[in-house]
Structures are given as structure tokens and as C-alpha cells.
Design a protein that fits this description.
It is built from 10 helices and 13 strands. By secondary structure, the chain is of the alpha/beta class. It folds into 3 domains: 95 residues, Nucleic acid-binding proteins (OB fold (Dihydrolipoamide Acetyltransferase, E2P), Beta Barrel); 154 residues, P-loop containing nucleotide triphosphate hydrolases (Rossmann fold, 3-Layer(aba) Sandwich), CATH 3.40.50.300; 56 residues, no CATH class. The structure holds guanosine-5'-triphosphate and zinc ion (ZN). The site of guanosine-5'-triphosphate (GTP) has 17 residues, from helix 5 and helix 6.
Length: 334
């Protein structure tokens, strides 16, 4: 099958209702081009493919009808048919989505179990939190860690505004879980953080005002993320609410998530979190069926594990239990 005919079928037709590709033939999947979804905006996905000369080309795409309800998110590895030249006004189609290695998921809130995937295949979840102004939102922090562990991402705390206060209390809070952390301020070197980000795909999350945009603009100087300072000088804000992937000059990519201010966790169980900690997961094989692994779960094997080892184990278990307790829906039986 010739993919040329296919390409013609997916040309954008300007219409009030948007464009609809009409295909009478099945797409030539064997000629589909692999690519990475770098942005999603109202049904249009920007997919980065390799151009004829090896340089990356960004192609505007939509989902092929045959994908059914399968959503496409930033970070998805996909295959694309149609016009992949990157020409303006061209529209290619995503025909396959690769299985996701990791997935950062959220629910609208803790009672709505409808899962939404925020980002696929990211290696690292960078939780940006200021040590002051605003004070750290501990509940949000815990929830981010839970979402990371449950989704298969390694968490990294980026503790900003260390010119205002010490990051030590936060470092202490998560020491038992051995969460990696990087102190940061506007004036501080980016080297430590860049070391963590190198050659990885990282997602940045943070609540309003923590300095995430300031950080992204330093990491990716041509990103132009709107910062709080802009509004102060009256220029208005042009904060994009869409998730977008940005290349780091030194290698690796960061995905900014400006619209994400909360992470509902109705889809997460204590076992999902437990699985991220090898030692705890191993000890929990002796737990009763459906054990919730909290301090009030009768016969939870984690108690015996903690009691039978060095004090660090008790610290670790307490940290783990604080984490799962922070998630409203989690409890015995999950
Ligand atoms: N003291 C101090 N202030 C900072 C630092 N980094 C950023 N700020 C200030 O904190 C405020 C918020 O910074 P932003 O980068 O806009 O924060 P944000 O997390 O992107 O917040 P939104 O724009 O609401 O998404 C601004 O006034 C920044 O100038 C820092 O290291 N130290
Ligand atoms: Zn247990």
C-alpha cells in the first residue's frame, strides 16, 4: 500500500467543526514512522519524528479512528502515518501507541475513580516545592510521591527558595524513604539538578508560586514560561495550561505541567506504593490477605520486620505509613 494516497486523505480542511480525515483504505502501518508525543492541545498532538536528514521534525497529528478511545499523552511513543514532513497545514495520524513503561496518573479527585494519564514514559517526577513563601504543602508533596511510586517514576524533590529558609526539615521528613532531593534557589547553581535530569525524561510538578516557571526558564532558556514576576509588572500572563516537553540544552527532556495543581489518587492502593520499596514489599509477603499495611492492620508483617532490625527500619516504616495515610482513599482492604 502506498502511503502517499494516505497523506492526501489527512490534509487539513478548514471548517467550523475542525477537520475530519476521510479514509476509505486502511492506513499503511508498515510505513508508519516512529515518534514521540511532545505536546497535546485540544485533540491535536505534536509528534517529534526523525526527518530525512536525521534532524528532528515536529509533526501535527490526530488520533486515527481505529485507536478508539485510547488517549494519547505527552511522552507516548507512537507511530504516525500521513504527511510527516512537518509542513504547516499538514495533519498526520497516530495509528499505534506503544505500551507505557511508566505512567503518571491522576484522578479528578479522590472520589472520582476516572483515571487520567498526565504523562507517559517519564523516568523522573521532579516535585518542586518552596521551603518558604509559600510554605511547603506537605499533603501535596506526599501525594506527588505516591503518584510517582505508583506510576513507576523515581521521585526527586527540588526544594526551591533556599535563600529564605533551610531545606533541612523537608530533607528530614523524607530521609526514611531515601527520597532524592536537590536544594535550589534563583542564585544557586543548576549543576546538581542537571545531573539528575541528564539523559532522562523528567516531569515537573509544583503548586502555584513555588518558583517552577523561574526554574524551567533557567533550565530551558528559550522556553519562556510565564512567571509570577510578569504579572507584577502588568504585562499580563500567558501561562499555557497544556503539558509540554522541552529539551534540555545538555541532554534530556523536561515536561512542564502548568495546569496540574493537584493529584487525585483514587486509583492508587497501598500495594501500588509498597511495590516501589523492595525491602518493604519483600517483608509484606507474610501479611494477611488484603492487608492495608497501616499501624492498625492486625498482623501486618511490616511491624515484625521493623521490630526485628536496626532502628532505621522503624523510621522507614513510619515514613511509609505516613505516606499512605496521606492518601484519603487508602485504607484496609485496598
Ligand atoms: N526568594 C526567592 N524567590 C523566588 C525564587 N524563585 C522564584 N522566586 C519568586 O517566586 C515567585 C513565583 O515564581 P514563579 O516562577 O512564577 O512560580 P511558579 O511556580 O511558576 O508559579 P506560577 O507562576 O503560579 O505557576 C516569583 O515572584 C519569583 O520571583 C527563589 O529562589 N528565591
Ligand atoms: Zn501489611
Amino acid at each position: 500500500m502506498d502511503s502517499r494516497s494516505d497523506e492526501d486523505d489527512v490534509r487539513v480542511r478548514a471548517s467550523r467543526h475542525g477537520s475530519r480525515p476521510r479514509t476509505r483504505t486502511r492506513p499503511a502501518h508498515d510505513e508508519a514512522v516512529p515518534g514521540l508525543v511532545i505536546a497535546v492541545d485540544r485533540g491535536r498532538m505534536t509528534v517529534r519524528v526523525e526527518g530525512p536528514d536525521g534532524a528532528p521534525v515536529d509533526v501535527t497529528t490526530m488520533r486515527a479512528r481505529e485507536l478508539g478511545k485510547h488517549g494519547v499523552v505527552v511522552g507516548d511513543r507512537v507511530r504516525v502515518v500521513g504527511d510527516t514532513t512537518g509542513r504547516t497545514d499538514s495533519l498526520a495520524r497516530i495509528v499505534t501507541i506503544a505500551d507505557r513503561v511508566t505512567s503518571l496518573r491522576r484522578t479528578a479527585d479522590d472520589t472520582d475513580p476516572t483515571e487520567r494519564i498526565v504523562v507517559a514514559n517519564a523516568d523522573l517526577l521532579v516535585v518542586v516545592t518552596s521551603v518558604a513563601d509559600p510554605d511547603p504543602a506537605l499533603g501535596f508533596l506526599d501525594r506527588c510521591l505516591v503518584a510517582a511510586y505508583a506510576g513507576g517514576l523515581a521521585p526527586l524533590l527540588c526544594l526551591t527558595k533556599t535563600d529564605l529558609a533551610s531545606p533541612q526539615p523537608l530533607l528530614d521528613r523524607y530521609a526514611g524513604l531515601e527520597v532524592q532531593a536537590v536544594p535550589m534557589s534563583r542564585e544557586a547553581s543548576l549543576d546538581d539538578l542537571l545531573e539528575h535530569l541528564r539523559d532522562r525524561m523528567s516531569v515537573l510538578v509544583g503548586q502555584s508560586g513555588v518558583g517552577k516557571s523561574t526554574l524551567v526558564n533557567r533550565l530551558v532558556p528559550d522556553a519562556f514560561r510565564a512567571t509570577g514576576d510578569v504579572s507584577k509588572i502588568g504585562k499580563g500572563r500567558h501561562t499555557s495550561s497544556s503539558v509540554v516537553l522541552l529539551d534540555l540544552p545538555g541532554g534530556g527532556t523536561v515536561i512542564d505541567t502548568p495546569g496540574i495543581r493537584s493529584l487525585g489518587l483514587a486509583h492508587v492502593t497501598p500495594s501500588d506504593v509498597l511495590a516501589a520499596f523492595d525491602d518493604l514489599a519483600e517483608a509484606a509477603v507474610d501479611c494477611p490477605p488484603l492487608c492495608g499495611h497501616t499501624a492498625v492492620d492486625p498482623g501486618c508483617a511490616l511491624d515484625a520486620w521493623a521490630a526485628g532490625g536496626p532502628p532505621a527500619r522503624r523510621e522507614r516504616l513510619a515514613s511509609f505509613r505516613r505516606l499512605i495515610a496521606a492518601v484519603g482513599q487508602l485504607g484496609p482492604g485496598h
